[in-house]
Write a structure and sequence with these properties.
This protein is α+β, with helices and mostly antiparallel strands. The chain is built from 12 helices and 27 strands.
């Protein structure tokens, strides 16, 4: 896309005043120097300009964007800069229409005030989340947490009759030391009763568990899985938890089945050793079938998902295509001068130094540990399963017997890397990930082969838990057996739990703390960059 004359003037102003935009080619600079000077803009206007001008280069659907003058980015200047930038991103996203739906690729029915994928982050906030300003992740992408240590969810038939269950507890947290477990029910927060009016009680739940600046100390009352009551005062604090929530090995029907529940794909430097531990255990046990529980996993780093795919894949896949990252045509053809102003953290390079062609950004399987001959994988998924988690599933699907149990996933086949604009980091939808068959079409989510509710009453890997029981049943019998929830099978087995509580519809997307993203920082195609050069 060629820039019009007004855009060149704005670029000149940005270069001169705040150094937000990189240099143009020499002939373009000479042309701009002959043009009349534009009126000086304030910093907020220059940031608004930058949000649009970067999008013209890096946004996945940049060919659908209008010219600078037609878009008029300065209309999004706001006294609340984060809100203004988010609204500008939403306006940019509205031009990228998915022909299959007639709506924006980034349309998000549960939060129409922001794009589904692209977002702005203030790095000063601890683990702030895509789509919801002011929220915090339970664990950030570097594996650090600063919270009570609880993941909670509301389940029930109506807003006036629901239960707040503990879905997961992180070791090393205040909640973990207090002995709170998955399946415990929280009935009161600081003396306020829960369960009778979700709309009125939600702000208290959200502030307690998922909002930046939440109270440092909180008193929780509830009922443990054994029926006894508890009252615990928990403290919000910094700690470094394990995001491997559970791992075990089962033997049945002549098979050795490995199970791992993973909360997040955080930085490989933090998670790699733990993944090695789990998959070395699977190797020693001769595991040939896997259950990978991603029910609360919103994604994370591409490199970590790639690493886990190599641990799962049989050795026979070595050298075959795992997935490709598809950038827009401008990026693939190297028209990325604007990125000269974006240094890659921890290196001497900028994002303009990379090769963004699809050929250069195709990943292949390289067996680096794990069981040698896994033939079947069942993934447990929910609407929280997103991005790098979906990438893992999509990459393995053409090559193995892959099944999904649970609910339709979030739907995020796109990823990004951060660009610095002022004091903020902006994450545009930059690339689409496609598997070896060229498939990347899961914007509406991946539909499970067998539907089940997430049953928080039982621990991870417990055969009484509906999703796990269905996955286990498939690996041991070759078919799905209905165990409750929303299973569609006509056969009901009496060995597993039935009547799993239904996730409360009103809470499904507001109580949504996991980071939903797919971050790349280590390009295969970096002509000047290798693993030793990146952070």
């Amino acid at each position: 896309m060629k820039r019009d004359r007004s855009t060149k003037l704005i670029l000149t102003a940005l270069i001169t005043v705040v150094f937000l935009i990189g240099c143009e080619r020499e002939d373009e600079i000479r042309d701009m120097e002959r043009t009349p000077a534009v009126p000086l803009a304030n910093a907020a206007e220059l940031i608004a300009d930058s949000v649009f001008l970067y999008a013209q280069t890096v946004y996945l659907w940049n060919d659908l964007l209008p010219a600078y003058a037609a878009f008029n980015p300065r209309q999004y200047v706001s006294t609340d800069q984060l809100a203004g930038m988010t609204q500008e991103l939403l306006a940019i996203a509205d031009y990228a229409i998915n022909p299959e739906t007639g709506q924006s690729y980034e349309f998000y029915a549960q939060n129409t005030g922001a794009p589904k994928y692209s977002y702005v982050d203030n790095p000063g906030n601890n683990g702030s989340l895509a789509n919801v300003a002011g929220r915090q992740a339970l664990v950030d992408m570097d594996g650090q947490a600063n919270d009570l240590g609880l993941l909670v969810g509301a389940y029930g038939s109506s807003n006036s009759d629901y239960t707040l269950y503990v879905q997961a507890v992180f070791e090393g947290s205040s909640a973990g030391r207090a002995g709170i477990k998955r399946g415990d029910r929280i009935t009161h927060i600081n003396g306020r009763g829960l369960g009778s009016n979700f709309n009125a009680e939600y702000p208290t739940i959200d502030e307690t568990f998922y909002t930046d600046g939440a109270p440092v100390q909180v008193m929780l009352e509830g009922i443990r899985t054994d029926g006894t009551r508890f009252s615990e005062t928990l403290s919000k604090e910094s700690y470094r938890p394990s995001v491997v929530l559970c791992d075990s090995v089962y033997r049945a029907a002549g098979r050795s089945i490995g199970y791992v529940a993973l909360y997040q794909f955080n930085d490989l430097e933090n998670l790699g050793t733990e993944l090695d531990r789990v998959f070395n255990r699977f190797s020693a046990a001769g595991v040939d079938g896997l259950i990978v529980d991603l029910r609360y996993n919103g994604g994370g780093y591409v490199a970590t998902a790639e690493y886990m795919a190599n641990l799962i894949a049989p050795a026979t896949l070595t050298g075959r295509t795992m997935f490709s990252e598809r950038f827009n045509e401008s990026m693939q053809q190297g028209r990325v001068d604007i990125l000269k102003n974006q240094p890659v953290s921890g290196t001497r390079y900028t994002y303009a130094d990379y090769d963004y062609s699809e050929a250069a950004n195709t990943y292949t399987f390289t067996k680096n540990g794990g069981p040698a001959s896994v033939s079947s994988v069942v993934f447990i998924v929910t609407g929280e399963t997103a991005s790098a988690s979906e990438l893992l599933i999509n990459s393995l699907a053409p090559h193995m017997d892959v099944k999904l149990v649970g609910a339709t996933t979030f739907g995020k086949p796109v990823g990004f890397f951060p660009l610095k604009i002022g004091e903020y980091e902006i994450y545009y939808s930059m690339f689409e990930t496609a598997n070896s068959e060229g498939s990347a079409d899961y914007y509406a989510g991946m539909v499970p082969d067998h539907e089940e509710y997430d049953d928080p009453r039982y621990g991870f890997g417990d055969l009484s838990e509906t999703s796990f029981a269905a996955a286990y049943g498939y690996l041991t019998s070759g078919t799905f057996r209905a165990v409750g929830g929303i299973a569609k099978s006509a056969s009901v087995e009496g060995t597993a739990a039935s009547g799993a509580p239904k996730p409360l519809e009103a809470a499904r997307h507001v109580l949504s703390p996991s980071f939903k993203g797919m971050i790349t920082k280590n390009f295969v195609g970096g002509a000047h960059v290798n693993n030793d050069d990146t952070q």
